[in-house]
């Protein structure tokens, strides 16, 4: 393992440079052209560092998904990640300060993708990949629930011995993610009847008033004792201050720890009824990701990770988190899955999103060791 660590430390400057290159290729999820340009940059990095190109899963509305295969052995490890971000182009500047590098999507999760490329490169340079096949699955729509990539990911992950998810480590502790909540997204479109707010308000039916009733109902579905959260993150209605609003819309995020709760929440949301006479509701959405639970097989990977980290020179724990990832899908298939293997840092989806530069080499070495599926790495 010392040879791998030394190699990665020697190339840490190049790793950081590659991270900056990928972060500079901004890729907001709903901008297909920008996401595809970022995908081209990612392909160039794979070509330069590993000499491989992508199998492209072409999409009409989202960015194209990319699959890279290294090696031809019978034992397959899937490295899972995404290259879309929550940031609009030009919204968040890149900067380096106090041992941290800031930028849009750098922690979630472009640094992790680059680190996984260099982890494989280190193994390749040391002739440690005989009999192995490493498949990098890079989706383009994870930040919006993976609507076009979930089936694609599941199809190509089947039969794998393990899935390593290079999403960021837990902020503050650097812990790996051994379990995640299932997630859902819903929209409630509310239609009322417009009227003049001064002359004849009694003739109107306020969609905004209905919206207020529905927000209270939806937040009443929260069940902290069961690990269930329901959040109305978007509430928009009306367009003129002197008009009884005839339109409103709610955007709802749900998080659950069990399939039973997923079914309960789905039924509650999809069967909501109007409070005001004359209101029409249109409800769309679903539970998009199943809960990720730690299996006995996934625990084995976690234990290997802890042993590997000790060899490298640090310690790491496992933690359950509320956010979902594409690892939820592979875990639900029964494939041993370990998440949070990407960069360390803080501020995902926040303006202070950053990575810890000093941890790049050690975290990359951890992924390299796990790619081999062994507790001890030669050298």
Automatic annotation (TrEMBL):
What InterPro entries does its record include?
A: Bact_exopeptidase_dim_dom, Pept_M20_glutamate_carboxypep, Peptidase_M20, Peptidase_M20_dimer, Peptidase_M20A
Q: May I ask which residue range the UniProt record assigns to the signal sequence?
A: none
- GO MF term (any one): hydrolase activity
Transport listed as a keyword: no
Q: Does the keyword Transmembrane helix apply?
A: no
Active-site residues, as the UniProt record annotates them: 84, 142 (proton acceptor)
The Peptidase M20 dimerisation domain covers which part of the protein? 178-272
Q: Which keywords fit this entry according to its UniProt record? A: Cobalt, Hydrolase, Metal-binding
Q: What is this protein called?
A: Peptidase M20
Organism, scientific name: Pantoea rodasii
């Amino acid at each position: 393992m010392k040879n791998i660590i030394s190699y990665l430390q020697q190339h840490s400057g190049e790793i950081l440079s590659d991270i900056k290159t990928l972060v500079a290729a901004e890729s907001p999820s709903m901008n297909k052209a920008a996401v595809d340009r970022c995908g081209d940059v990612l392909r160039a990095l794979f070509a330069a560092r590993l000499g491989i190109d992508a199998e492209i899963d072409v999409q009409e509305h989202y960015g194209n998904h990319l699959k890279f295969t290294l090696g031809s052995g019978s034992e397959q490890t899937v490295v899972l990640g995404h290259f879309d971000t929550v940031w609009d182009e030009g919204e968040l500047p890149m900067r380096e300060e106090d041992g941290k590098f800031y930028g849009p999507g750098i922690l979630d999760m472009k640094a992790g993708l680059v680190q996984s490329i260099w982890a494989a490169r280190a193994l390749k340079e040391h002739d440690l990949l005989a009999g192995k096949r490493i498949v990098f699955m890079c989706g383009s729509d994870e930040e919006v629930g993976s609507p076009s990539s979930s089936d694609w990911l599941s199809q190509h992950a089947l039969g794998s011995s393990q899935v390593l998810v290079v999403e960021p480590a837990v902020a503050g502790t650097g812990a790996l993610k051994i379990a995640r909540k299932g997630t859902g997204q819903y929209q409630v479109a509310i239609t009322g009847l417009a009227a003049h707010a001064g002359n004849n308000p009694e003739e109107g039916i306020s969609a905004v008033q209905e919206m207020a009733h529905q927000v209270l109902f939806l937040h009443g579905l929260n069940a902290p004792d069961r690990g269930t959260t329901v959040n109305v993150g978007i509430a928009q209605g009306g367009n003129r201050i002197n008009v009884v609003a005839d339109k409103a819309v709610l955007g709802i995020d749900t998080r659950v720890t069990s399939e039973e709760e997923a079914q309960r929440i789905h039924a509650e949301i999809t069967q909501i009824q109007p409070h005001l006479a004359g209101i029409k509701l249109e409800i769309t959405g679903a539970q998009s990701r199943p809960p990720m639970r730690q299996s006995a097989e996934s625990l084995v990977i976690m234990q290997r990770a802890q042993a590997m980290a000790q060899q490298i020179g640090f310690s790491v724990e496992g933690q359950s988190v509320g956010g979902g990832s594409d690892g939820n899908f592979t875990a639900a298939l029964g494939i041993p899955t370990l998440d949070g293997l990407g960069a360390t840092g803080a501020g995902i989806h926040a303006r202070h999103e950053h990575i810890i530069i000093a941890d790049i080499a050690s975290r990359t070495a951890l992924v390299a060791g796990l790619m081999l599926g062994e507790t001890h790495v030669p050298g």
